[in-house]
Queue: 4 jobs
Job 1
Amino acid sequence: MPNYKIKPRFVKGVCPNPKGRPKSASKALRQFTAQEVALTINELIQLSVPELRRIAQNPETPAIRALVARTITSGYLRGEWDNFDKVLSRFIGKVPDKIEHAGVGGKDLIPPTFNILPIPPAIKE
């Protein structure tokens, strides 16, 4: 059996990422990105599938347009919109779920189902 030397993944005493984790984008940049994605989606959602494929396959297409075009095309062809939903929630934000905590007219949503009645004594004197 041959004796192979395995190169270690990390070298002791050497930091694999000396600059650390990259800082997150500023809030203004994230808002611009959300706006840009929203405009791109509004524009591309109106195109036909062959036009979307041509945009996605063109190497000169900006990355955001190619990503959205690919996501719309694959979702349409497969009938699965999970990836498109992920792109929307990643850039634009998740739509908050609204939960109603009161019934119609502000009344209790679930009426009380039990009454507290006095318990009669078990033994009569």
Job 2
Amino acid sequence: MVLGNETVKRAFPGKSDSVKFQIGTIIEYSPKGKVVWEWHAKDFFTNEVLARAGSRDKGVGTATHMNALSVDGTNIYIGFRDVSWILKIDKTTKKVTEIYGGPDSGRPNHYAKGLFRFQHSATLLRDGSMAIINNDSIKDPAVFSSMVIFSLGEAPFGKGEERFRFLFNYDSLSSGKTQKMGNVSQLKNGNFLINMGSLNRVCEITPKGEVVWDLFVEKHDSVKESWKPFSQYRVAVATSLYPNEFSAKWEPDAAKGNYLDGKLTIYNVGSEPNSYSVFSEHRDGSKKLLATLPVVLPQQSTQAAVSIPRELISEQTRIVIRVNEKSYYEVLNIENW
């Protein structure tokens, strides 16, 4: 799924001319690039809904700023920063079934009203709740930004009920106020990695709110020879810089009948356990599965017998080794075999 924008032209009360503005789209593509599903925010954000949302645009309220997506089965959660709402969409009907946060929408099934403002991220957690970065107000001196976890209806909590809040003013090293950006991830150990966006700070906390790791992100200005704050839109966790790296070795046997047989060895030199699929790829773009290899642990190897039908071999034939369920792959030209 890809988040994007489209330009909309719409008439507003009190305006002599139609107003052009951009508003979000969600498009789902198949692996071959075909559009298989789409949703357009313009269909939900009517003039009446925009007026209730209290968008911050001057003149007419058209700013919504879609900035987050999470998928849970047939339900899709979308965050709109500038109206402080997270929408739950039924993928089958394309209807908005629930709203969380922000000002009153006047619609049923609106929960957590006023719980957060100008949020970033919409992370589904393993217990069924949701975590967001609550940028909130930078103008009110009594308000600090935070990471907020709220219920989506998981027992025994009510929908929209606040379950946890971690304030960003936990020490005197920063203002505790972030204007925009940011995200939160749940780590394998149950802790949370929090990116504070424009505060240019990242920390890891326990579920009880104890800070166990902290980082200020900066970049070097080579002209002024100084370090400056470097805000992060999002941060992510990887086991290494090359988690899925591998190498392959082919040892051909003597040709037998209509097949070219050989032994393929794959060395997992990355940092994650992976399994592999081996294909022949042809001039027309088609692929034929030749072999599947089981999970290989980091810094270990595996071997498999591979038979390539002679009719599949040509100057344009390539062998593609793909890491299963990931986008990483390696291509070998057939003549090198």
Job 3
Amino acid sequence: MRFTLDSNIPVRAATSPRGPALRLLDIILGAHTLVLSRFILEEVERVLLYPRIQARYRITTAEAARFAENLADAADLVEPVIDRPVILSDPPATLPGPIAMDNCERGPRFTPRLHRASHQHLHDSDCVIILSMEFTLEWGRPLTLQPATGNAIYSLDLHEIPNTAGVYVFFRRFGDTPSPLYVGMAVDLQKRIKQQLEFVKLMKYMENDLNGTRCVVYGEFKPKQGQGEDCLRRIERALIHYYLAQGHELLNIQGRRIRTHSLTSERTDSVVKKMIPAKMIFEP
């Protein structure tokens, strides 16, 4: 389900780490999709810098900007279409009163780390703003794909794969060295992997790849309270980005390789060498 929020809710979440507004964000980010616009994000940033909020929490301009950007990273951004006249005499925004959410279940933790005691000042470097959730996968053993008969290219004993939600990775194996080829997610691992084995175009690309035994491995998703299918998509994206950053070539766009860029850095200083990698692989 997709939710949008008035700017006062993120503001309350940023300043009250144990309040109901933060619990609401926990639930939305854990099991649903948060939809925001730049107008809402700009309002959040502006309200965090109001004098009366400054007097209590001492939030810096940089902290407010980082909080808004982290919200943008966690949400789907849309461009609203205005089809009615805008009322420009809106009264100044104020923080909302308590929200009645005593019966809401708690979801994965949303952690803005912007809260401050009324008269306590922290250095800017101590106020890192993080929107975080914790996921768990339980990985099975790798399964080797066997040559198939008929129109199929590979076959597999599907009874070894559970009918549970999770992610899977097709890969080729040279001894103990794996090289990932394709990453996917599924609400039913057995059903989805069966469909992929029947996807001739993807299997043909895997067959034509370099030498090595073709295998698949799956990770069962162990959801915490409030975590759903949207979390699986996040995990899938994280694995794709991880493998691309390691220099692996994936077949995740309809059986075609994902196009990547590389950055090579020339470094001479010893400190810079520890901080900047010699080569980086990243998506366009």
Job 4
Amino acid sequence: MLLNAREIENVEGKQHVILLSMEDVTDRADKLVIANEEKDRLADELVIANEEKDKLVDELVSFGIERERLIQKIKRAATIFTHSNESIMITDADATITEVNHSFNQMTGYCSKDVIGENSIMVQSGDETPEFFAEMWDSLLSKGHWHGKYGIAVKVVMSIPQRRLLLLWRMLMVLLTITFHYPPIFLQ
């Protein structure tokens, strides 16, 4: 068995020498090679993990940018919906009204709270044919939207001056009816 001697350092003025067998040196060298290989493997994994992290960060930034773009798009659509002069009614797939705009309220006389949650059949005028509704629903289901003219039942809402005018009108009609149906009789 061969021995290798190696000088280490001076500790407290004494020189220390370590004697190792060739087997010990070989064993330690093998362990060092294995440790270096493990270190290299872990370094490679770390590089891959950092690349994946960078890719995920880029995707997250991209998602954030896309999210902001979609939020702006939704805000623009909401502004168009709110300020449109066209009457807009949004329903779900079951024809339940989920949203109406201000023009709808003005044109029909219905408040949003009166119609939201109700079936859209409540605002049908009755003037359209079943074929009209079949075409409308076919477009809604296939394209996701429909555009066209549609008669809507209008809620009768009158202010006090309008009611007075209507009452005066009715009184006038009653007087005219009485006059024409029951002409006055004058006796001399």
